[in-house]
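Reading a protein record of the kind used here takes only a little practice. The record below shows the convention in full.

——
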Amino acid sequence: MTKEKKELLKKEIIITGFGGQGIVLAGRILGKAASLCDHKESTLIQSYGPEARGGACSADVIISSRPIYYPYIKSPDILACMSQSGFEKFIGSLKKGGQLLIDQDLVKPVDVAGDFFSIPATLMAEELGRTMMANIIMVGFITAITEVISLKASRDTVTGSVPKGTEEMNLTAFSKGYNYGLALLKSRHKKAVGKTGA
């Protein structure tokens, strides 16, 4: 990456789901990791539906290497969906060529023009015995797929953002999401190379 491109780095991310999934915490982790560990600028805007728990919820995160003057997002570069209603609300605003990430157990993507990345985040969290950690699994997945924040920044911020005594469990959840993302990218790369060589 050239110095000029590095200076112009700016990514707009929307994480969406429903209240009680830890959507805002996931957004906060991304923003804090970017600003406190990766030394970039970041903003976080959170939005709740009228019902709060169980209602629509989203976190808008902007990460930039330059000052951010407007914290609202119209067309995200990255959209991570953990509910069908969130997917339906925001899919139309995803930038052309943007990255779509979904929880495959909770979101059935319909009429998606481009490619997308899916992970059974809720199922994986259930297997760990804590459904509430699906958001941390998704943070790991976002970190691997998008590289919008560094692995170290993400892990350190997860550790500092979860309740005392749950750090190791949450790091396990994070690693599950991260490793799943890496494996998915590797598999896609192999397929692409195979197609090219054919």
Summary: Strands lie at 10-18, 41-48, 56-64, 78-81, 99-103, 117-119. The radius of gyration is 16 Å. The mean pLDDT is 91. Residues 91 and 111 are 10 Å apart (CA to CA).
